[in-house]
Amino acid sequence: MYISAKVxxxxxxxxxxAAADGAVTSEALARAQGLPPKFLEAILNDLRRGGxxxxxxxxxxxxxxxxxxEQINVADVIRQIDGPLAEVRGLRPExxxxxxxxxxxxxxxxxxxxxxxxxxxxxxxxxxxxxxLPLSVTRLTDDPDAWLSR
Length: 150
Prior knowledge:
The protein has 150 residues and is mostly helical. It has 7 helices and 2 strands; from the N terminus they run αααββαααα. The chain is 50% helix and 5% strand. The radius of gyration is 18 Å and the shape is globular.
């Protein structure tokens, strides 16, 4: 899975907003996470339009989560910023069809999406911001092989 800079920055911003007391300006978010301010502003606008953030202008202005951090998972952020978790040539995995020796490839792509969902829908912004990841995730990261690139 390719995780774009937009998604990485968006999740980092959401976690920072979740950990804050009150509204957080885009400038403060950029500083806190070392992110490019203009690029971050575009990401925050996407998250606001998608109903994950709210914004307020003025002296007490800034960004807030649109709902509790426990109700926003990583998959929500990814879908808002980059679209579906898994696509095959621009199609949903269940819409991709194959013939002959490759016929079972569709099932592989559907399984990949299900695997992504199990992690990304199971981890909330609150989990990350609090440092308390679900056991299902820590079990995966406890395996030393998980940390090896191939």
